[in-house]
UniProtKB/TrEMBL annotation, chain A:
Keywords: Endosome, Golgi apparatus, Membrane, Phosphoprotein, Protein transport, Transport
Subcellular localization, as worded in the UniProt entry: Endosome membrane; Golgi apparatus membrane
Protein name per the record: Vacuolar protein sorting-associated protein 45
GO cellular component: endosome membrane; Golgi membrane
PANTHER family attached to this UniProt entry: VESICLE PROTEIN SORTING-ASSOCIATED
From TrEMBL, chain B:
Protein name listed in UniProt: Rabenosyn-5
Source species of the chain: Neomonachus schauinslandi
Acidic residues: compositionally biased ranges: 720-734
Listed InterPro entries: Rab4/Rab5_effector (IPR052727), Rbsn_Rab-bd (IPR021565), Rbsn_Rab-bd_sf (IPR036531), Znf_C2H2_type (IPR013087), Znf_FYVE (IPR000306), Znf_FYVE-rel (IPR017455), Znf_FYVE_PHD (IPR011011), Znf_RING/FYVE/PHD (IPR013083)
SUPFAM superfamilies: FYVE/PHD zinc finger, Rabenosyn-5 Rab-binding domain-like
Domain of life: Eukaryota
Gene from which the chain derives: RBSN
Sequence segments annotated as region (Disordered): 206-238, 627-651, 663-734
Claim: Coiled coil is one of the keywords in the record: yes
Span of domain FYVE-type: 156-259
GO MF annotations in UniProt: zinc ion binding
Length: 568, 782
């Protein structure tokens, strides 16, 4: 169930199968991302892969002394490129691996172009493995209105089925009834499983695995919140793209730190700290620095005796690795804390959490109003506060959204953001939600919340629990309601599920990844993998909302953005 | 003996706190501890428990530290230790689903490839026929006839237009026939095959490569030889003259096929420089992968002061490995600069490839070379060797000490028991033989080393292998030496293990016997008690005076205990003189029960000699015991609490318990065939005497590094009787403490060497704490 490991195994197998000798890895745009998430350059160099080429790059030289390993998605363009390549081979021998099911006709046309006796196989690494329990397809804007963009639907289906194949799971499927898109996807996945039934013949487990398909619409709150755990925070404030972080906008950044890679696979500090909160990171960074400093003087001061030098040389690889780690994390954390104070994020986050978790309308309104007056609060943060208010108190009797919108306008927030407020409400408002985000229904939850209120909260910045937590909790306990999350097909699961794959149409978040991580750690015997069409931060989520074209409040005219809504 | 008196001595390594076995790592120590000692610390329980736990805790702490250290080096899944069910911790998973299209591929391309191969072969066979005769010296008509015989020419009338360019054939635009397939084309579309090219294709040999001239159109005639250029010039003239007898006309299609074929031949035969260099580089890397672990093994062993490998050999190997590294460096540099100053600079991708190879070679060297630890210098090595030797010696001594100590305890208890039993029943034995013969009892032991040397097959084997190694080294067969050394090490390990197992076995048996004895003792005591009560009623005054008597006797009582000990020391010295002999002195394990029995009962008369000796102690105690019994109403209860099994099991009279011992004794007696002692005169006391043989022979040097004489003073047999349980435990606890201290000292040493200062601090703190505990305890026992 470890998705990173699954992809890594595929890549290792490819490389091993090609035998010794210099190798070139031929990929397309997407598979480049897939491979780069699980393998570092130095790691793959050790396996004699020295060159990485894009199949569509024209400027490739004939190098007959290289073996080519092609890892490609089975798209029409790729097959065409490959046919050309095979007709005029540039490398001595080709090993072709497709990341998904390829059609018979494509195989035929490839074979007809082949004079090299190539090896062709399907390896189902057709998704981006972010964490061991988190995968993404890097699709932004998967829906048009409430329905799938057909191209993205097929890509998502491919990604999901590839995931199932790489983990060797043939699951039962449940989906969120309130979402049409979820149902469509469930049906498509089922269709593929039926069609490729021989591929999905795995050893039966006692309890069949479960695929739960959800829609982002059900919880639009989570992606709107500021985050305080390392991975989520970096993504929220700086943006993580295939493990890479762009730091070029950081003032006074040194050249080699313009783009850094944060990968738990080879960065121990990151692996150990990605789920810790900002305060803890701070102290850990301090320790890291101290460690570093403790080692550093050895080189600069105490290099008098030969023994010292020897010791230094013997420590050198670790030292070098460590120095890289230190400067990287110091830069990242430094930038985070700069942004936090510059944007007054602590205060903003506190109000966000209040909006998300508590039901005190008047105090919430007051706080939002107060922050809107604060010049330090950026228009982005101001807009998201209003969005959160709008989502929570959408139907509140004394809803004063128009007043807040006025405040936004007075603050000088651009129209783009003001329009987004209504778009977000349209995207994830009460009307589309299948379940209630804010007021718990069952008695247990009510008491829980009541007790929570009595005790006070430990950390005001991390009160919020994603809705996913409740859903999964119910699912694990076998209490998830079938009228809200029905099974696809007649058979239902009698036992509590053990292997769970959750997929969120419209994108998951790192906060949800953390939730799943914690659930994995605290519930023995249960393994959960989370996936989404992408992994969102607030910015990308707003883009997603924008892309779905839900500008108007009316469902019928959702394809045609109307300006009237934004004027409210 | 002197070394034993020094409890503060530092011992290093991972020593098991119970059996003092030196284990190589924390893990081994822990697993050893769990395997060997989990069940057998019955006699060490009680108050000791807390200390063991403390020690364990410390160990765990250290263990965790080592884990961290070990993991910081490796990357990937192992380095994640959050605890709980982390996604990284999910059980290993197999490779995901895979589907191969190879069979489909083969099916689809088979026909095409077959067709291609047939086509090529056909052309080449024809070409061979066309070039088989001397073209230049044959008449053109004849040539034409031969050419026509190879392939039927297409009829001129059938082809009015050139099939390739579509021009109409006329008198000016004449028809030409392809000599390979017989088809017709115009002059413009005609291709020519030079003879060398044809030759190359037909022979497909390397020789033709140098003389080969590809026709002017050939795209890949990069390196045309001089002769080639001349012939191409002549070809131009010949075309002009239309005298192309040394060429073969053919169509574009045939030519293409042939060119492709040529390319294939070229690729097969030509390996670019980079490939040659790269192959060398990989070879070197493989060599390093082979040699480096071997060297690291050697260096680690040498740095530990072991003598399994020779220093010279190791340094040779080091030099060798370093040379390979230099070679790798040089080769990768060469690859990096390959073709850099060529006129058309190489393609950027080629340069990238070269850079990458160089980079990965650098990474390789960095990672591996810096992992090579340095060797000790000759002097250092000598020092290390000495240190190690001392350490081993010390370890051996300590190991033996433990055995001896437990034996001593065993003996003491035995003799107490015996005396008690005797006191109760065999009063007649009081007037036993004189103490003079005591010394004679030790003779067989001093003689035993020789015997044991022959009798222990393991030791013999070790001896043999050592000599083999010497021979092999002389013969210079290094690989053999290595396997032999491996072998030797295994044997030594095996031997060590055997020794410790024996020791463990012994102590366990002793514990069992002690239990039984205690039961017995209690029974006796009870009986005595009853009898005493009668006496007590009769003469209570008398008792008191007697008890005073006892105290006077005490110093005297110590005497005999001391004397055998010095003898033992002598015996031990003998034992220490050679490694082999020491083995025999140690191991009275049941598994090898026969052997020790034989050794100890050596001369047939021996049993008798022992007999008196045991009597002495009995005698001594008998004198003291009387008061004890009178005074001892409390002792049965004490016995009852310390040995609950005795209280629980309702054994019959003491005689029945004695009978339980009989099988064991009989075994021994059988082993000692012809021992006159097998016919004891009185059944009840005799078993005791037989058993007493053991204690007296594997005597009684005190427990562990502590001062034996201190121990002796507190192991007053009398006290032992009254509360044998706790009394036996006390010294062990102290011993444990000392060991723990030693261990921690070793850790500190290790940590200091590795420069982990924070750890050193924690450890020193730990050490201080332990020392305090020890001091407290000493005060308590003193």
């Amino acid at each position: 169930m470890n998705v990173v490991f699954a992809v890594k195994q595929y890549v290792s197998k490819m490389i091993e199968d090609s035998g010794p000798g210099m190798k070139v890895l031929l990929m397309d745009k997407e598979t480049t991302g897939i491979v780069s998430m699980v393998y570092t350059q130095s790691e793959i160099l050790q396996k004699e892969v020295y060159l990485f080429e894009r199949i569509d790059s024209q400027n490739r030289e004939i190098m007959k002394h290289l073996k080519a390993i092609c890892f490609l998605r089975p798209t029409k363009e790729n097959v065409d490129y490959l046919i050309q390549e095979l007709r005029r081979p540039k490398y001595s021998i080709y090993f072709i691996y497709f990341s998904n099911v390829i059609s018979k006709s494509d195989v035929k046309s490839l074979a007809e172009a082949d004079e090299q006796e190539v090896v062709a196989e399907e390896f189902y690494g057709d998704y981006i493995a972010v964490n061991p329990h988190l995968f993404s397809l890097n699709i932004l804007g998967c829906c048009q209105g409430r329905n799938w963009d057909p191209a993205q639907l097929s890509r998502t289906t491919q990604g999901l089925t590839a995931l199932l194949l790489s983990l060797k799971k043939c699951p039962m499927i449940r989906y969120q009834l309130s979402s049409e898109a979820a149902k469509r996807l469930a049906e498509c996945v089922k269709q593929v499983i039926t069609k490729e039934y021989e591929l999905f013949e795995f050893r039966r487990t006692e309890v069949p695995p479960l695929l739960l398909i959800l829609d982002r619409c059900d919880d639009a709150i989570t992606p709107l919140l500021n985050q305080w755990t390392y991975q989520a925070m970096v993504h929220e404030l700086l943006g993580i793209n295939n493990n890479r972080i762009d730091l070029s906008r950081v003032p006074g950044i040194s050249k080699d730190l313009r783009e850094v890679v944060l990968s738990a696979e080879n960065d121990e500090f990151y692996a150990n700290n990605m789920y810790l909160n900002f305060a803890e990171i701070g102290s850990n960074i301090k320790n890291l620095m101290e460690d570093f400093q403790k080692k550093k003087p050895k080189e600069q001061q105490k290099l008098e005796s030969i023994a010292d030098m020897k010791a230094f040389v013997e420590n050198y690889p670790q030292f070098k690795k460590m120095s890289g780690t230190v400067s990287k994390h110091v830069t990242v954390v430094g930038e985070l804390s700069r942004l936090v104070s510059e944007r007054n994020l602590l205060e903003v986050s506190e109000v966000e959490q209040e909006l998300a978790c508590q039901n005190d309308h008047s105090s919430a309104l007051q706080n939002v109003k107060r922050l809107l007056q604060n010049p330090k609060v950026t228009e982005f943060d101001a807009a998201r506060l209003v969005m959160l208010y709008a989502l929570h108190y959408e139907r509140h009797s004394s809803n004063s959204l128009p007043g807040l919108m006025m405040d936004l306008r007075n603050k000088g927030v651009s129209e783009k953001y003001r329009k987004l407020v209504s778009a977000v409400v349209e995207y994830g408002g009460k009307r589309v939600r299948g379940s209630d985000l804010f007021s718990p229904k069952d008695a247990v939850a009510i008491t829980k919340q009541f007790l929570k209120g009595l005790k006070g909260v430990e950390n005001v910045y991390t009160q919020h629990q994603p809705f996913l937590h409740e859903t999964l909790d119910h699912l694990i306990k076998g209490k998830l309601k079938e009228n809200v999350y029905p099974y696809l097909g007649p058979s239902t699961l009698r036992d509590r599920p053990q292997d769970i794959i959750v997929f969120i149409i419209g994108g998951a978040t790192y906060e949800e990844a953390l939730t799943v991580y914690n659930l994995n750690r605290t519930t023995p015997g249960v393994r959960i993998v989370l996936g989404g069409t992408t992994v969102h931060n607030t910015k990308s989520f707003l883009e997603e909302v924008l892309a779905s074209g839900l500008h108007s409040r009316s469902r019928e005219s959702s394809q045609v953005p109307s300006r009237s809504a934004s004027r409210r | 003996m002197a070394s034993l008196d020094d409890p503060g001595e530092v011992r290093e390594g991972f020593l098991c706190p119970l059996c003092l076995k030196n284990l190589q790592s924390f893990y081994q120590l822990q697993s050893h501890y769990e395997e060997e000692h989990s069940g057998e610390d019955r006699d060490v329980k009680g108050q000791i428990k807390s200390l063991v736990q403390k020690a364990k805790k410390a160990k765990n702490r250290l263990l965790k530290r080592e884990d961290d250290r070990a993991e910081s080096g490796t990357q990937g899944y192992e380095s994640f230790s959050y605890g709980g069910v982390d996604p990284y911790m999910w059980e290993p998973q197999e490779l995901g689903a895979v589907r191969s299209h190879l069979s489909d591929f083969k099916k689809h391309r088979a026909a095409r490839i077959d067709h291609y191969v047939v086509e090529v072969n056909k052309l080449i066979i024809r070409l061979e026929k066309l070039t088989a005769f001397d073209r230049t010296n044959t008449e053109s008509a004849k040539i034409r006839a031969i050419e026509k015989s190879v392939v039927p020419w297409v009829n001129d009338q059938d082809v009015p237009f050139c099939p390739d360019c579509g021009n109409k054939f006329s008198i000016r635009n004449r028809r030409h026939h392809c000599r390979l397939c017989g088809s017709i084309m115009c002059k413009k579309c005609m291709e020519l095959i030079s003879l060398p090219f044809a030759n190359k294709l037909t022979s497909a040999s390397k020789d033709s490569l140098s003389t080969h001239t590809s026709p002017s159109q050939s795209p890949n005639s990069v390196h045309g030889s001089r002769r080639g250029s001349i012939s191409s010039v002549s070809s131009v003239s010949s075309v002009l003259d239309e005298k192309d007898d040394d060429r073969i006309r053919c169509c574009t299609h045939c030519k293409d096929t042939l060119l492709k074929r040529e390319q294939q031949i070229d690729e097969k035969e030509h390996t670019p420089d980079i490939v040659k260099l790269y192959e060398k580089l990989r070879l070197c890397m493989e060599k390093v992968d082979q040699k480096a672990p071997e060297y690291i093994r050697m260096a680690a062993s040498l740095n530990a002061g072991e003598t399994t490998y020779s220093l010279e050999h190791a340094s040779d190997l080091r030099v060798e490995v370093q040379k390979v590294y230099e070679l790798i460096d040089a080769l990768s540099k060469k690859i990096l600069t390959l073709g850099l100053n060529q006129d058309p600079p190489p393609h950027p991708n080629t340069l990238r490839l070269q850079r990458m190879i160089r980079y990965s070679a650098t990474l390789f060297v960095q990672e591996k070379l810096l992992g090579l630890m340095s060797l000790p210098t000759r002097e250092q090595f000598e020092e290390l060797k000495k240190k190690r030797k001392q350490e081993m010696e010390r370890k051996r001594i300590l190991e033996r000490q433990v055995v001896l100590e437990s034996q001593q305890r065993f003996e003491e208890r035995r003799s107490d028991l015996a005396s008690r039993a005797a006191n109760g029943e065999v009063v007649s034995l009081r007037g036993g033989p004189a103490p003079l013969r005591k010394a004679e009892g030790w003779l067989p032991l001093s003689g035993s080393p020789g015997q044991s040397e022959d009798s222990d097959p393991l030791l013999q084997q070790i001896h043999n292998i050592t000599s083999f190694i010497r021979q092999a080294k002389a013969a210079g067969r290094t690989d053999e030496v290595r396997t032999l050394q491996e072998n030797l090490r295994q044997l030594q390990d095996e031997y060590d293990q055997q020794q410790t197992e024996k020791a463990i076995e012994l102590s366990r048996r002793q514990a069992e016997e002690e239990d039984l004895q205690r039961e017995q003792l209690q029974r006796l005591c009870e009986r005595e008690w009853e009898r005493e009560r009668e006496q007590f009623r009769a003469a209570s005054l008398h008792t008191r005076t007697r008890s005073l008597d006892f105290r006077e006797i005490r110093p005297f009582q110590l005497e005999p205990g001391r004397e055998p000990r010095t003898h033992l020391a002598y015996a031990l010295d003998l034992g220490f003189s050679s490694v082999q002999s020491s083995a025999a002195a140690e191991p009275p394990a049941p598994s090898s029960a026969l052997e020790p029995a034989r050794v100890w009962s050596g001369p047939p008369a021996l049993g008798q000699e022992f007999f008196p000796q045991s009597m002495i102690s009995q005698q001594n105690e008998l004198a003291s015991l009387n008061p004890f019994y009178e005074e001892d109403p409390s002792s049965p209860t004490a016995g009852g609490t310390t040995s609950p099994p005795a209280a629980e099991h309702s054994f019959g009279p003491s005689v029945s318990i004695l009978k339980e011992y009989n099988p064991f004794e009989e075994e021994e007696e059988e082993a000692v065939a012809g021992n006159p002692f097998t016919n004891p005169d009185s059944p009840a006391p005799n078993p005791f005497d037989e058993e007493d043989e053991h204690p007296h022979q594997r005597p009684s040097s005190p427990p562990v590094p502590g001062n034996p004489f201190e121990e002796a003073t507190c192991t007053n047999p009398f006290e032992m009787d009254s509360d044998s349980g706790p009394e036996g435990e006390e010294p062990i606890e102290e011993e444990l403490l000392l060991q723990q201290i030693d261990n921690i000292k070793a850790y500190i040493f290790d940590a200091k060497q590795c420069g982990r200062l924070d750890e050193v601090e924690v450890l020193t703190e730990n050490l201080r704490e332990l020392k305090r505990t020890l001091a407290k305890q000493k005060r308590g026992t003193d």
